[in-house]
Structure formats: structure tokens, C-alpha cells
Amino acid sequence: MQQLIGELMRTIDLAQSPLRELNEELHRQTDGSNEAQWEILNPRGGHAIAVGLDAPINVDVRGSVGYYCAGMNKKATVTVHGSAGPGVAENMMSGRVVIKGDASQYAGATGRGGLLVIEGNASSRCGISMKGIDIVVKGNIGHMSAFMAQSGHLVVLGDAGDALGDSIYEAKLFVRGKVKSLGADCIEKEMRPEHQEALTNLLKNAGIKDAKASEFRRYGSARKLYNFNIDNADAY
Amino acid sequence: MSPKIPLTTPRPSATFDDYTLSEIRRAASTGIYDIRGGGAKRRVPHFDDLLFLGASVSRYPLEGYRERCSTSVTLGTRFAKKPIELKIPITIAGMSFGALSANAKEALGRGASIAGTSTTTGDGGMTPEERGQSKTLVYQYLPSRYGMNPDDLRKADAIEVVVGQGAKPGGGGMLLGQKISDRVAEMRNLPKGIDQRSACRHPDWTGPDDLEIKILEIREITDWQKPIYVKVGGTRPYYDIALAVKAGADVIVLDGMQGGTAATQEVFIENVGLPTLACIRPAVQALQDLGMHRKVQLIVSGGIRNGADVAKALALGADAVAIGMAALVALGDNDPALDAEYAKLGTRAGCYDDWHEGRDPAGITTQDPELSKRLDPVRAGRRLANYLKVMTLEVQTIARAAGHNNIHNLEPEDLCALTLEAAAMARVPLAGTSWIPGVNGSGGL
């Protein structure tokens, strides 16, 4: 069922082991664990793979995953060598999640910290209600991304769909390509030196070398809808 | 000199009554819909419209001061490794830190723990005060996900996925800027002083098939230890409860329109949703049709005020109830002793519902440090415990009189209805007849 590969690598084959055993085993890992390298085989689009991790371990998932992979991740680095279904890294607290393929809806939803890198495209509502997470998407993102985004950074190397940043709070959005339309209360903002610096660091942390901060535009909140006013009712 | 013509008495309109006229004037003056706390204030068919039959020749009662009558309940027996054991089936409903002061949350935890029941977090995360003082704490998983984190998820005794609530099924919340203190703002990752809109639906799932996967994720994160509740507002209870069962809920919380909110539009509170009484039987029917009654526990809330209401909810098939508004009153909300201060706010004791403004003289629905200090959490907690114990005694009194040694043995057969509406909704006979409108014919004796 499980086999040791070298001293530190453990492999769990989901064609053999139930999901519950996998997650329970990963939850047993602690800060001082010497089993720092994990490989998950045959995910076969399964849901809730490697969720609720709370240790500085590396988990490589060999294939595509379903809903909520790496949900509520803390400290761990989870790499999906395939595509991810809805809600990947939802409510992530810290650590790093990398999707080698595409991501479906709600990637990084409500995330509070850590870095989510999507090497392909992300679907609609990427970064919805994000609360401190950093998300870097190498491809395009779908409509209503960063809806009600509270804090953190969303970096998009490609294009953004309709209604980007609708009802946004204090999250910072950087897009290199075209933005189809901006949502309510979201505007283009000046790219000041501190934003250039933050973006440069984000690109570096995401391992992206072929993009410069100067190629991006910044979007954020106009802060006109922060307190209710009847004369703004048409904006909703 | 012409004869004096008799004048007719000034006649107010039943349609345009004083309240309606005042609301038109308020709307015209402010340009903003009215926001308030609490639940539906309109008269709707309720537990008052039901009566217990009691024992007589055909049933024998139990002795009130000698014979035991059990009240305990276990919640979450379907999938959770660690179900919740409560001494009484009266729980404290979800109310947020933010809507309530930290002292009020602590008092709820203290009172519930003394009485042997659970309390519940709200839309703002878990505070150390309530975790510390609550023996059994249910952690709400809400659309806004304010304050949500895996550490608190693991500290909880149960997790309640909130789909909706009775005061505003289909609606989100609104915590207005004046209640956003530094601490509240930090817990919600938002700037101080802005209106905080709580989303009306979850950010990462829609529909029953997604809910099933979301529940799976929460179970996996918590290693299948904790009971998972699903809370719905009363709208289409038969189908909502059936779908919640299908999605894998251990426990379902069903909240009728009299259930309170911290702040929602008046038009929403009074015009959307079903009365609590109308929700219970369709919900129980769904559980029975699926063979899951008593296996998936049902908690009913919305307008529970006393032991009679609890007994009636249980008799109609609920496993437990939850109280919110009544618990706040037990702590000291709307106390007549504060009438002079309520008058300064343009209202009076018993009517105060502008909880969103944060000026509560009782120190409960506020974040103002000076007002909050007025509530002594130890004393208020004791008051809540007293109230919970009285309610429990009342339920036992009724159950014994109906001949039951366990309050969960109360059943619809113990009840009759005073009105046709209540008879139809509760599916019990109109008093003095065997007629259940919608179930059988005109009935006889």
C-alpha cells in the first residue's frame, strides 16, 4: 500500500489507499517530521486531496485533482502535476500550492496567506473573497475574479474576464494582458514604486523570469461603496 | 343657527396603519431601506396555536416530583467519530462576535455550559472568550468566511455549514461601519469603519452536489471527528432537508422566519421565509421518507420562548431547538430598567431592534467599550443558565403530564390546534375534532 522510496520520500497510491488514510497520515506530520517528501499517485480527479495540512512538507500529486485540493493548507508545499478542480487551495493560510495545469472556479477562494501559483489558466471567480493570499496565474483568468477580494495580491500574466474585482476591498490586482471589464467599484490605479517592488518579488517567488513588473497594470478599489449610500444603488 | 352636524370618529386605515405611514415617511426622508435586528414581528401561526392534550383515562401521567423524565440528546451520530452529548435539547444559536460584544459572547458560553448545552459562533470567527467559556462550541462555516481558519475548526466540537437563516433566507448580512472596532476589523481582514457585507452564498460551492463535496472536505480536514451541521432558513423545508441529508449532514438546523438576525432589511425579515410552525412537519416528513428521522438530528429555531414551545417542537419531531433572541433577553436585552435610555434612542424596552447601530444600553449588541462593560458576563451567564433550566423543567412538566418518561417521546398525537391554519401547518387535529386540514377529510369526533 505504501512504500518507502529512499529515506525521506513516501508514496501513497490512491488507487490502493482510501482518501481518509492519506489525509490522516499527512495530518500526523509535524514541524520536525523527517518524512518531508510525499508523492501521491493516481489522484484520478478525486476531491479533498491533501487538505488541512499543517507541517512544512512537500507533497507532489501526480495527476489531476477534483475539488478543494490543498484546502486550508498551512506550511506545506503542494504541487499538482496536472489540473485542479474547483476551490483549489481554498482558505489557504500559508505555504505554497503550485498547479502545473489549469485551475477551475474559485481558485484560492478566501485564502488568508501563502502563495498559489497556477501555471495554466484559471476559471471564473479566481481569488474570490481573498483575505491575504497571493495568487499568480501565468495564463488567463475568468469572469468575476477577485470578487469581494479583501486583501492580498492577484497577479495575472494573461488576460482577465468580465467584472474583474467586483465589490473589491483592499486586495491589489496586477494584470499584464487585457481586462475585459472591471466590476463595481474597481478601478485602474497608479503603479507606484512600492507596487513595482511588491510585484517584482511576487514574480520572483513564483519562479517567473519572463515577465517584468513594468508590463503590468494595477487595479484596486475606488472605495466608493465602502459605506452604503442610496445614490450608489445603481452600481450594484 | 344651523344645527350641529355630528362628526364621524377619525378612522385610521387598516391598510395604511400608523406603522406603515411612519415607514413611508422614514423612507422618503432617508432614501435608505430600514435595517434592523431581530426576527419577523408580524403575527404568524405559531406554537401558541397548539395545545397539549395531557393524560386522562386513556393515558396515564407520570409523577412530576418523583418519576424521571430524561432530557439529554446526542447530536451527530451519523458519521462523526465524536458526537455531541447535551444534557438538554435547548442550544444557543449562532450569533457573531461583532454583532455581540465579547462580554455577551462569554456570557452565552458560561450560561450554556452551566446548563449543559452548546453555544455557537457566528459571522466573525471564534473568540478565545467564547471558546474558553463554552464546554461545547459549534463553529459556524459561513459564506463570508470571516475569521475562518483550520486551527479553530479543529478546536470546535461541531461545525455548522450555514446555508441560510430564517430571518433572511437567500440574503447576506450587513455589519455597519459603526460596529467595526479594531478587533472586529482585524478578525475579518477589513478596514475599520466600513460596512461589511456578508455574502449571501458560499464563495466556493453552489447547489447540493457541491455541498456534498464541501462537507467531505471539512470532514477530511478534521479527520471525521466532528459532527457537521447544515443550517437552512425555512423556505422549502421538505426538499432542503432531503438535500442536506443527501449531502451528508449529521445534523440539520432549520430556522423559521421569527428567527433573529443582527442586521437585515425590514422588508426581508417580514416578507421572506416560512413561519417556524410551517417548517417542522415537512422537514420531519423528509427525514422519515429517507429513513433518517432520529439518525440525522433536527434542530428547530425561530421564536422559541419557553418550555411549551420546546415541547411542541419536539412533539412535532425535532430532536432539539436553538434560541437566540430569548437568550439575549435572558442576558438583559430590552430590559425595562433601561427604559429611559431606550427612550433616548427613540424606542422603548421590548421594542429595541436597532442592534446594528451599536448603541445598545444593555451592552450586548455593541462594540462600544463603555457600553460593553455594563454587561457582567458571570452574572448574565447565570441568568441564562437559570432561564435554560426553567425551560427544561417546563418541558419535563408537560412531558410527564402527557405520560412520557423522556421528553423526546412527545409526539404529534399529544397535540391539537386552536386554528385551522395551525392544524394544517402542524398536521395535528383542530381542537375537539379529528380533522387535519390537508391530511384527512372534514373529520368527525
SSE blueprint and pairings:
The complex is a heterodimer of chains A (236) and B (445).
Chain A: E1 2-5, E2 9-13, H1 19-27, E3 37-41, E4 58-62, E5 77-80, E6 96-99, E7 115-118, E8 131-137, E9 151-156, E10 172-175, E11 186-189, H2 193-205, E12 217-221
Parallel strand pairs in A: 2-3, 3-4, 4-5, 5-6, 6-7, 7-8, 8-9, 9-10
Antiparallel strand pairs in A: 1-2, 10-12, 11-12
Chain B: H1 18-30, E1 35-38, E2 50-52, E3 73-75, E4 84-86, E5 90-92, H2 102-115, E6 118-120, H3 128-133, E7 136-141, H4 150-155, E8 158-162, E9 174-175, H5 182-188, E10 196-197, H6 207-221, E11 228-233, H7 237-247, E12 251-255, E13 261-265, H8 266-271, H9 276-289, E14 297-301, H10 307-315, E15 320-323, H11 325-331, H12 339-344, H13 369-372, H14 377-401, E16 415-417, H15 420-426
Parallel strand pairs in B: 5-15, 6-7, 7-8, 8-11, 11-12, 12-14, 14-15
Antiparallel strand pairs in B: 1-13, 2-16, 3-4, 9-10
Helix pairs in contact in B: 2-14, 6-7, 7-9, 10-14, 11-14
Output the number of helix runs of chain A: 2
Over the alpha carbons, how many angstroms does the gyration radius of chain A reach?
18 Å
Number of helices of chain B: 15
As a percent range, the share of strand residues of chain A is 15-25%
Structural class determined from secondary elements of chain A:
mainly beta
CATH architecture of chain B: Alpha-Beta Barrel
User: What separation lies between the terminal Cα atoms of chain B?
Assistant: 67 Å
CATH superfamily of chain B: Aldolase class I
**Portion of residues in helices of chain A?**
under 10%
> From the coordinates shown, what is the CATH architecture of chain A?
3 Solenoid
Judged by helices, strands and strand pairing, the structural class of chain B is alpha/beta
CATH topology of chain B: TIM Barrel
Low-confidence stretches of chain A: 1-6
